[in-house]
């Protein structure tokens, strides 16, 4: 996670984008901003935040045609009883009511994730959304995230939660490189909350009524603040319950803006007697289209509104609006098939072809990784990077094609204590980085130690520190000339490999 | 006297997740409490499994 992303205030002009070639990316950013009618609500979001958004199918209006997401159902338990939810089924706010997801163990979840990443190369985001509350199942959820972060560096991680125990886990989420968190918040007022939640369970105790509402809201807000400090992109979901929270949601939206929340997604209550929910059985009605429009309108000036949301299941797979989860049952997945390095290579090749509209399949090209905390300058020491931005170079054209992430074992300060423990952390970081950079031809960073440089070059990754503190967009167009021999060699090898 | 989970349990995993004694596990399609491990949560007022179960009537004191 680039915790420093936040600091960098960027206008959303063409020049500050990672590459003017990433046209769809910029378009989708613009459309997101226009949604809110007030572009300034996103003005203090750094560029890399926007980049995160632009590739996330649930967040960006445009990305949901190009990128796919997947939810892994590893988290069955819940610590809140919402009146719109019947725990016999999946959570009603992230899922279609009445459908129960296939529960996976963390190891099965990783296997499924790898199988899907192989079958759907557009897969860019993996999330944990249920079927209960992911953070009410901290062991299952965090183990799954850690397994994926370690094995699948080219995947973004996200998580949905009701926020009750979020504050207890933000540090771990940051360490695991979770990009996006969605918090479901239905009220800012504890009396209103008391009409929405039957009870909450916290530290061994059940709370009800206004007290439950108060504790929940307090902890949700503390969680949002911690996410903002950590630089984790945050979205809030709210369920509009007519007659209960329609006046509280615009107020909530104002509060969200103060907490750096990027999107506020207001969804209609789903409430039918046959779902067996408290609301459904007690005649609570669903909002009309017009009511939903109105509340979104009243809230829209505060935080961007997301209008293309499909309420999807806790095990949804595929592009937003389609669900291919039935194609990927765990019993059909070949558990021995895991060679992710190979898959990752094929995925970057797919992304390269997509970004360059096929050009990367027709001529010599290179994949360059850069280390940067702002996507503008090559300004990070190799040892301080937990995220590598990947670009495809073809002649003087360059295209942003994704990123690779690693989990950090040490804080990476310049003055590392010279203990054995520390040494082994460094080795783990290095091994992970080499694995994550599989398929990358060239690494640009501001500085690098001798030992890591040798290890990278031994793994076939050239390291170049000549461009430390240079701007990404001036370096990339000039770089191809310097490395064209390497590009041609790679091109030849690739073709001989395919011919044989 | 340990607690007992009835047949109406719908296997939501909540009690299993919070039991400090590791006494709860799935058996077939419902969860069961191992009386040898259950401490009845004597350290607090209400047993944790009871406090988190969405259908608390499912969990009873053993007769
Ligand atoms: S009473 Fe306490 S120890 Fe016994 S099963 Fe329930 S949670 Fe576990
Ligand atoms: S919390 Fe209740 S319903 Fe859920 S698994 Fe335990 S006994 Fe069954």
Oligomer: heterodimer
Give the ligands present: iron/sulfur cluster
Amino- and carboxy-terminal Cα gap of chain A: 41 Å
Q: Classify the beta-strand content of chain A into a percent band.
A: 15-25%
- SSE series of chain B: EHEEHE
Rg from Cα of chain B = 10 Å
Overall number of strands of chain B? 4
| Reported CATH architecture of chain B | 2-Layer Sandwich
Strand order in the largest sheet of chain A: 10-9-8-5-4-3-1-11
Q: What is the number of helical segments of chain A per DSSP (H or I, 4+ residues)? A: 16
Provide the spatial order of strands within the biggest beta sheet of chain B: 1-4
From the helix content, strand content and strand pairing of chain B, which structural class follows?
alpha+beta
User: Overall 3D geometry of chain B?
Assistant: globular
Write the CATH architecture name of the largest domain in chain A: Alpha-Beta Barrel
**Helix content percent band of chain A:** 25-40%
Q: Could you list some keywords that capture this structure?
A:
heterodimer; A: 500 residues; alpha/beta; TIM Barrel; Nucleotidyltransferase, domain 5; 2 domains; eight-stranded mixed β-sheet; five-stranded mixed β-sheet; 16 helices; 16 strands; elongated; disordered N terminus; B: 63 residues; alpha+beta; Alpha-Beta Plaits; two-stranded antiparallel sheet; globular; binds iron/sulfur cluster
Describe the structure in your own words.
Chain A contains 16 helices and 16 strands. Chain A has 500 residues and is α/β, with parallel strands linked by helices. Chain A folds into 2 domains: 3-332, Aldolase class I (TIM Barrel, Alpha-Beta Barrel), CATH 3.20.20.70; 340-499, 2-Layer Sandwich (Nucleotidyltransferase, domain 5), CATH 3.30.420.130. In chain A, the strands form 3 sheets. Chain A has an 8-stranded mixed beta sheet with strand order 10-9-8-5-4-3-1-11. Residues 1-47, 94-98 and 307-312 of chain A have low confidence and may be disordered. Chain B is α+β, with helices and mostly antiparallel strands and 63 residues long. Chain B has one domain (3-57): Alpha-Beta Plaits, CATH 3.30.70.20. Chain B is built from 2 helices and 4 strands, in the order βαββαβ. Chain A binds chain B through residues 76-79, 81, 87-88, 132, 136-137, 201, 204-206, and chain B through 10-14, 16-18, 41, 44-46, 48, 51-52, 54-55. One iron/sulfur cluster is lined by residues 5, 9-15, 31, 52-55, 58-59 of chain B.
